[in-house]
Amino acid sequence: MKIKAILGMVLFLSLSLKISAFPKSTEPIQKELESPNGKVSVNIDTQSKVFHYSINVEGDELLSKSKMSIFPNAEVKVLGTELKSVKEKWKPVWGQFSEIENLYNELELSLLYETIPVKLYIRAYNGGVAFRYIVENIPNNTKAEFFMEYGLSEASNLYTPAGESKPKGPFRLNYLSDSTNKQKLLMPLLVEAKDKHFVALLESDLASAPGFNVIDFKFENKLVGRNRFSNTDDGLVTPWRLILIEKNIGDLVTNTIALNVAAANKIEDPSWIKPGKTLWDWRVHSYKAADGFTYGIDNESYYRFIDFAAEHEIEYFLIDDSWYTDVKKGHIEMSDKLDLQKVSDYAKEKGVDLILYYDRHKGVYGDEELFPYYKSLGMSGIKYGFMGNNVSFSREAIRLSAESKLLIDFHDSPVPFTGMTRTYPNAISREYCHAQQDSRRAFTPEAFIRMALINALQGPLDMNNGIFDITGVNSGKRQKGPKELNSLRTTVTAEVARTLIIFSGLVCIPDAPEAYAAKLDLFEFIKKMPVGKWDETKVLHAKMDDYISTARRHDDEWFIGSVHSKGGSLAINLDFLEDGKEYQVTYYEDTQETDSKTNPEAYQIRKGTVKKGDVIKVQMVAGGGHCLWIRPNN
Fold first, then answer.
1. Under 8 Å between Cβ of 275 and 428
2. What are φ and ψ of residue 282, in 5° steps?
3. Pick from 187, 293, 494, 630: most CB atoms within 10 A?
């Protein structure tokens, strides 16, 4: 999309009330922009002909004076400023909320970088700050780069995602300043600030910023973030650079600024986009059922998945890469181990939608033709693997999959397209984490909590929680299971809770149908979850490395999942229920005998009634979990 078209759309989508305008001037300025509740303020200073900003929270400095620029080493002048306020609501196609409030104050600055006119937009929300540059015309051979310092206190602690490993940290700035330290910093960075606020550093709406790559964080006297620009267009729109600020770490996960700044939905009729749950064949290979059947790559195995999905209202079945053996331009050679057309026909007859894997390791089909081909096979989605941090490819793959009415789920450390679920809601999930048993390694309970509080900040995750046959996986009875025996430390109730805690539009449950059938009373919680159709989401408790408890509402039903790495109790205060109503509650719990190392599949289920204001003491073993399903007592 051309820059002028993007600029026009940005201006059109900002329904605003003009508050005040300032006369044009080329004098240096010092200005302050406050959030609607007055607690967050951004201070602007150009007195040294360099653009500086700082951020205060409730009068205390959070980020000290820091540089920002779009053209390196160019002097900046302010030509004029305009202030506006926006208060609106919008409805996402799917997500953690059925309605989102967009409330902010915005300062639009008309800048002159030597001879180049530039617009800088700064938005102050109650939960953070957003920055974006727009340049309509760039002279030839002019280097552009979105450069931003972050004046963090030296007392701050930083955490970073680490691909298919446990997120790393905490790091102090003096650790990062060591020239021998090669620590890689990925988006989103999570910061425990000096004044006990929690901060997330990330970006959004990269989809609307052609020519820019993902933000690159480095330490250069201060922490800095760079988006390098390489494009042939005559102008540019940067991604929105975000600084999210919350008192409670869990509130960062439900902060909606990244969605609010993202471009509006580009799919005219999104009615075909249906979030949900999926079974998956990859982790089940070589599983032996009680009747003697052994799962593999064949029609009978896939019919079993489809039958279970149909019987238990699981919307999708995901077939991984073993369905094909060779790829050439415009041709995919299918495995002779199964008849995919028969599988597709069977799934259609049973009312189960199929998602099919693809990557380029066996050859390149051609993406222009790939998505229509998948649609012709009767697929409802594609899981696209191993394209990594390729922004232009990923953006185009999302657009092309939408044209063919296909969901797309990216595998293996893809682009963290924060906000993309608003712009292209068919981008249903992505594996921007250590998915369970990736690289044939299990992640620890501590790693799960870290990923739930760090990796999840960039959007929906495909993490593959929900293992029920934990003993079988630990004993090495799976072809794709962890190489180290007994390394999967979890409980079956924790596995259920994880499927709720990790937000996704496609919750991939990786175990065999028979494993779920053996515990159908526990599977009830997963079955009843209306994935992606949430009206409201709250993180009730969260502490790095220790625990997290998440509550999600659909209509008048609440689903609550909690996990605890060290073991202990959490008090779940039901003050969010409606006055005067009695509710049924089902408890899915660890037992006194449950042990995440030696007895992970022991659980108990009980029922009761609750009302608003009740406090439930949730007890969990080390590595364990707890779930609550609450609905009106009709």
1. yes
2. -60, -45
3. 494
The helix/strand/coil state of 101 is: strand
Distance CA 338, CA 300 (A): 9
Burial of 123 (0-12, 13-18, 19+ CB in 10 A): buried
Report residue 298 as tokens: 């064949």
Q: What is the block-wise mean pLDDT of the chain (634 residues), using blocks of 10 residues?
A: 49 36 51 95 92 95 96 93 97 98 97 96 98 94 94 94 96 84 92 89 97 94 93 89 98 98 98 98 96 97 98 98 94 95 98 97 94 98 94 97 98 95 98 95 98 98 98 94 96 98 98 98 98 98 98 98 98 97 98 98 98 98 98 92
Residue keyed to tokens 């004046």? 151
pLDDT at 629: 98
Contacts of 163 (CB under 8 A, 6+ apart): 186, 413, 434
Looking at residue 408, what is its pLDDT? Answer: 98
Tokens of 565: 């790495």
11's CB contacts (< 8 A; 6+ apart) are none
Where are any strands of DSSP class E within 40-93?
A: 40-45, 51-57, 60-69, 76-90
Determine the pLDDT at residue 22.
40
pLDDT at 113: 96
Strands 276-280 vs 506-509: parallel, antiparallel or unpaired: parallel
Q: Report CA 151 to chain centroid distance, whole Å.
A: 26
CA distance 422 to 265: 5
What are the residue ranges of helices labelled H in 317-434? Answer: 340-350, 367-376, 391-403, 420-423
Closest CA to 605 of 618, 630, 623, 586: 586
Using CA atoms, how far residue 508 sits from 312, 464, 608, in Å, is 15, 5, 30
Environment class of 251 (CB within 10 Å of its CB; exposed 0-12, middle 13-18, buried 19+): middle
